[in-house]
Structures are given as structure tokens and as C-alpha cells.
Design a protein that fits this description.
One of its GO terms (biological process) is DNA-templated transcription initiation. It comes from Flavobacterium aciduliphilum. This is RNA polymerase sigma-70 factor (ECF subfamily). Belongs to the sigma-70 factor family. ECF subfamily. The protein is an all-alpha fold and 195 residues long. The chain folds into 2 domains: 109 residues, Rna Polymerase Sigma Factor, Chain: A, CATH 1.10.1740; 84 residues, Orthogonal Bundle (Arc Repressor Mutant, subunit A). The chain is built from 8 helices and no strands. The protein starts with a helix and ends with a helix.
Length: 195
Amino acid sequence: MQHSEEKEIIAQLKKNDDKAFQLLVDLFSKKVYNTCIGMLQNMEDAEDVTQEIFITIHLNIHQFKAESSLSTWIYRISVNKCLETIRSRNRRKRFGVFKSIFSSDGEKALENHSDFVHPGIQMENKERAAILFQAIDLLPEQQRTAYVLHKLEQVSYNEIAEIMNVSLSAVESLLFRAKQNLKKFLAHYYEENEK
């Protein structure tokens, strides 16, 4: 999108123009959904969070000051909403484990995302992709965010730095550490399962 088009859309959005909002959804819904599915690894959660993101954009467009591109601002909101969802999910998991320790049946209330496969993955690669997504799920928040944005969404290092509000060298470091951790996780997985 060209700068002049972006300025026009933003101006219309700030006037609560429904057509401008629909255009925004048309332009960004696929990117937002793909980011959510890469981060959350759950299609229903990704759909729900995508809707929340567009509601947040609609409610907060007046706060957009054009210090970054509209795309960067939307990615930033997307990442933050995904991280909120992951933190909430982790709190529920911890609460479920805590409850199960004291329950009579001892059932653990842990969600299992091991069967998640990104919908864009080819059939013959589904098993390997599921293993990769399990490994991505183990990465620390910042590494996971940088990795998903760069590898799954092809966002440039510069834009990732803006989205995450970190330096370019921090993005490079996060991606390097994410790759190292993924190699370790995957090597461990294959060692365990090749026996």
C-alpha cells in the first residue's frame, strides 16, 4: 500500500467510515490471521483473536499517530493480543495442574496442541510441520514472536524491530537464539523417537 493510500484509509477510519474499515479488514485479515495461527497454534483461538484485533484497531484508530506504518501498528497489536492469549492459556494450564494435584481423580487439565498443523502445510509435510510447531511452542516469548514474524510471515528484520520495539541487533540475536533452540529441541525429539 502506498503512503498516500494509507493516509487516506487512516483518515476515513478516524471518521468511522464502514467502507474504510471493510477495506482494512480485506487488506490485513489474512496477515493477522496467519500471525495468530503461527503464534497460537490453534485455529479457533486464531479466529477469535483475529476478531479481537480488528475490534481493537477500530476502537483505537484515533490513537494511531503514524509514527510507524499502519502494517507495523497492526502487527504490533496482533503480537500483543497473541501474547496475552498465550499468557492467559498458561495461567489456565497452571491452575488446571494445581487443581488436579488436589482433585480425587488426578486428571490433568492440560491443553495439548501436539496435533496442530498449520492449514497451509502440504499433506506430505504435516507430520514434520506438527513437530516444528511443537518446538516453536517451546520457545521463549520474544524468540517465538521474532521467529513467527520472520519465518512464517516473511516480515523484514527492520519491521520486526519496529513491531517488537527492539533494536535491529536484538532481532538478529532473537532469531539466532530461536534457531539454535529449535535445533536443540528437534535434535532431542528425533533422538527420543528414533530409538
